[in-house]
Design a protein that fits this description.
By secondary structure, this protein is α+β, with helices and mostly antiparallel strands. The chain has one domain: 2-Layer Sandwich (Macrophage Migration Inhibitory Factor), CATH 3.30.429.10. It is 31% helix and 29% strand. The protein is built from one helix and four strands; from the N terminus they run βαβββ. A two-stranded parallel ribbon has the order 1-2. It has a two-stranded antiparallel ribbon with strand order 3-4. Strand 3 (52-53) and strand 4 (56-57) form a beta hairpin.
Length: 62
């Protein structure tokens, strides 16, 4: 049973998340021969003040 975790900055719409989950599930089905019914996808929305890049908080970047 594949379990995929996607971490991304919050702000995507429900439609975008739905499309992402569909694409990921189809890719796992094609490449790993997994059934969609047994594929789990977890989306973790992360606030920009919880991530940093290059030593600068994402929420503080221009």
């Amino acid at each position: 049973m594949p379990f995929i975790t996607v971490k991304m900055l919050e702000g995507r719409t429900q439609d975008q998340k739905r499309a992402l989950v569909k694409e990921i599930t189809e890719a796992i089905e094609r490449t790993c021969n997994a059934t969609p019914e047994n594929t789990l996808v977890l989306i973790e929305d992360v606030s920009p003040d919880q991530w940093a890049k290059g030593g600068v908080m994402i929420s503080e970047r221009p």
